[in-house]
Amino acid sequence: MSEASNTRTPVAFAHPGARPTADAVSAALDELLSLLGEPLSELGEGDEVLIKPNMFQTQPGFAVNADLLAALARRVADHGARPTVAERTANIYEVLRDHPVHRWARVVSLDDLPLRVAAIPAATSLRVPIAVPDLVLDCDYFIGVPQLRTHASVVYSNAMKNLVGLLPGYTTRIVHMAGVDESTVDLNLLRHQDLVVCDGTTVIEGNYPMAGRAREVGFLAASRNAVALDVAVGSIAGFDPGSVAYLRDAHQRGMGPLDLADIELRGTDPDAIRFDMEKAPLEIVAPRPGIHIHADRACPACRRYIAGAMVALRSELLEWDGEMTVLAGPMTTTPPLVGAVVLVGNCLYESRDLGVYIEGCPPRAIQIAGFRYAMGKDVSAHERTQFRVPAGLVHASAVQGG
Question: 93, 189, 271, 312: least buried by Cβ within 10 Å?
Answer without folding.
Answer: 271
